[in-house]
Amino acid sequence: MGVKRAKEEADAGAVKAKKKVKTASPLLDCDAAKAFFEEQGIKVHVPAGKDVNITPLRGFNCDGFAKRLVKYCDGKFPKPTPIQACCWPLIMQKTDVCGIAKTGSGKTLAFAMPYLSMSRLGVLEVFEQPCNSPRFVAMAPTRELAMQIAEVCVDLVKALTAGDVVSNCECSVMAEKCCVTHDSFLLVSLTGSLIRWVFINSHFATEVATVFINNKKQETTIC
Ligand SMILES: Nc1ncnc2c1ncn2[C@@H]1O[C@H](COP(=O)(O)OP(=O)(O)OP(=O)(O)O)[C@@H](O)[C@H]1O
User: Fold this and answer.
1) Is 164 inside a domain boundary?
2) Is the beta carbon of 84 within 6 A of some atom in ligand 1?
3) 57 close to 85: Cβ distance less than 8 angstroms
């Protein structure tokens, strides 16, 4: 009898522990967050009166992220880069972010992951799904950078839709690259080309886009 009870208690403990692991916060705890900011030399400025949780992520599993995208990143990278760990939870709280990090620090995924996740889950408010105009517009100062951003976006969309990309890689002088899926439309453009693209595609009004990325050399503004 005693052995049976001990086994039952052990089983119950194991279930509890499993649940605890499952519900562990995706964010760093307070001390780890402080150490992370210090080690990485990260400064986060929050405007006065803004109520936002700035705690960085511990892994790729951010609240509200599409599971397929988390799996894609988990399979490709060991952990988020500092700009990703800090920007993802902020953007998922629907706050505007200006992220500054050096070249090659993973800024493209820092803004593309939240947009695609929110788009997929229907969290973005402007359009019902599917949408036929871009609501994600990324501007880049050089053609090379525009192509680089577009490639990352196309790979992510493929991971998200299991290859179900309606059309992609449309490349012209006007729009460097468009990527159309059932539920999102991403436009990556040279800053100057965007104005011409808007002019020619009269059905496209920039105010319908919910995510704007202004990608300068080391500074990315997301709003
Ligand atoms: N979490 C990660 N871990 C390791 N490598 C990553 C991670 N995220 C992205 N990368 C890789 O880092 C490289 C640079 O990424 P990315 O081009 O997004 O940087 P960037 O900061 O936007 O650079 P730039 O300022 O030139 O636009 C890419 O090869 C990308 O695959």
Assistant:
1) yes
2) yes
3) yes
pLDDT in tens, the chain (223 residues): 566 666 677 676 665 555 555 567 899 999 999 999 999 999 999 999 889 999 999 999 999 999 999 999 999 999 999 999 999 999 999 888 988 898 899 998 998 899 888 877 666 655 455 555 666 778 778 878 877 887 888 788 778 877 555 444 443 333 444 555 545 567 777 766 666 666 666 555 544 455 556 665 555 555 5
Residue 77, ligand 1, Cβ within 6 A: yes
- Distance (angstroms) between ligand 1 centre and the Cα of 103 equals 8
Give the whole-angstrom CA distance, residue 107 versus residue 89: 14
d(CA 122, CA 110) in angstroms, rounded, equals 19
| Distance from C-alpha of 84 to C-alpha of 76, rounded to nearest angstrom | 14
Domain count of the chain? 1
Instruction: Quote the pTM value.
Output: 0.78
Distance of CA 137 to the CA centre of its chain: 14
Domain range for 211: 25-44+54-222
CA-nearest residue for atom 8, ligand 1, is 106
Which residue carries 């705690």 as its tokens?
Answer: 55
Distance of CA 206 to the CA centre of its chain: 21
How far does the centroid of ligand 1 lie from the alpha carbon of residue 102, in Å?
10
